Sequence to fold (125 residues):
Amino acid sequence: MEKHVSLSGLLLITYGILHVLFLFIVFMLFLLSSGHYFHIFSYNRTGLDIPFVPIIFGLFIVFSILGIVTIIAGIGIMKFKEWARILAVISSILMLLNIPIGTFIGVYTLWVLLQKETVTLFNIK
Fold:
């Protein structure tokens, strides 16, 4: 079961890195296409009263934090830390919503980390 835990940790780290990288690219493309060119807290030029850029920036920060937490959980479960197992379970539940890749990784990670043998393995090390 140790190989499954290591693979699960590697998948979480890879997913988290790709998640944050993808968010960064989408955010930069949004800024460039909106004509704000890194004026993060200015209003949208469409004349709407809603400041779209700060909302998008806030979503970028929240989702980036989730990606970073996933990376931290992956590193922690590769070191067999109990706190990381709990964090990885929570992160995997959130990943289930990201169809299809996040769902696959989330189901696999939940399957690995919720096995009785894995729980015992984390308590021993």
User: Anything to note?
Assistant: The chain has one domain: 2-36+51-124. The helical segments are 2-34, 52-78, 82-95, 101-113, 116-124.
